[in-house]
Amino acid sequence: MLRAIYPGSFDPVTYGHLDIIERSCRIVDELIVGVLNNNAKRPLFSVEERAKILKEVTKDLKNIKVVPFDGLLVDFARQQEAKVIIRGLRMITDFEYELQMAQTNHKLEPGVDTMFLTTSIEYSYLSSTTVKEIAAFGGDVSQFVPEAVEVELKKKMNAKRRV
């Protein structure tokens, strides 16, 4: 059985992320979407909120698990008994960073390989940062994220405006 991890912050999950998730599910037997709890970043959504949203928007995919994690990705891969890390590439500049990370991860854990998937062209410009910025100014994000994400973004932005 081939088990892979698709790690990320997913703050929030976008159609670009879902593109990689859906395509990965067709390649591997089991996909673990690892929701990173990164203390160096200040996410809009908590790790629990991000995991809940991801579970909602991927509920129709049968070979997927959503699991929050922190620490080293290779340690998480070892704990989950995953042999592959999947990373999405939007543009060539992503590749330089991702290649360095893949080589470092392979050095730390030779039994884990990294597989790169290029994002479908219609999502190559899309990032969570851009979506959050549009939402912060009250813009329409419906073409970038599923409805469940849009609803949660509106709630979060309205709560921030009241503070």
Automatic annotation (TrEMBL):
Leader sequence segment: none
Lineage, opening ranks: Bacteria, Bacillati, Bacillota, Clostridia, Lachnospirales
Residues reported to bind ATP: 9-10, 17, 88-90, 98, 123-129
Compartmental location: Cytoplasm
SUPFAM superfamilies per record: Nucleotidylyl transferase
Site (Transition state stabilizer): 17
Classification via InterPro entries: Cyt_trans-like, PPAT, Rossmann-like_a/b/a_fold
Entry GO terms, CC: cytoplasm
Domain Cytidyltransferase-like: from-to ranges: 5-133
GO BP term, pick one: coenzyme A biosynthetic process
A GO molecular function held by the record: pantetheine-phosphate adenylyltransferase activity
Native source species: Muricomes intestini
Family: Belongs to the bacterial CoaD family.
Name this polypeptide is given: Phosphopantetheine adenylyltransferase
E.C. designation(s): 2.7.7.3
Enzyme class (EC, first level): transferase
